[in-house]
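Could you help me review a protein record that somebody else here produced? Here is the record exactly as it was handed to me:
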Amino acid sequence: MFLLETPRLLLRPFRDGDAATFAAYRSDPLVARYQGWDAPYPLELATAFVTSMMQVEPGRPGAWFQAAIERRADGAMLGDCAFQVLADEPRQAQVGATLAREHQRQGVAAEAVARLVDHLFDDLGLHRVIGVCDLENQASRRLLERLGFHLEGVFRENVWFKGAWGSECLYATLRRDRAAPR
């Protein structure tokens, strides 16, 4: 079973009771701004998504796996983080994270994503991990940079996103980068 721990957090599979919290933070327009869904995010859709995630095998190439980020102190769900081992190159993965607004700017995303990256390198033996974010999403860009990811490219107006052309940044880190000073 997938379960990763940090001093403050548990990264765990979704459970049936997570749908309402998941729908609530996905319904926040500021949380959804740079994400691939629209707010409000209906509870029925959240329930179906949580159910589908409970069927995904973590690390199966091509499949996104999202894990709930839970605060260890009280069991509160703060958001989620995800990874996808790439189907066409299973020694690489992509990561992402979403937090409820009230839990942002507290180091939660950095702690969760750092632990997830450690898992991908140490437990799954991957070579490279990437993060893709909107060019305007400064918080995500700073997070990836703090975690030692390197900006590899900017894709100008490469995606039709929420009614307009958007630009994305590609960041990556290699297993060997973790030993280098940041």
Notes: The radius of gyration is 16 Å. Residues 108-123 form the longest helix (16 residues). The domain at 4-179 is CATH 3.40.630.30 (Aminopeptidase). Residues 11 and 60 are 18 Å apart (CA to CA).
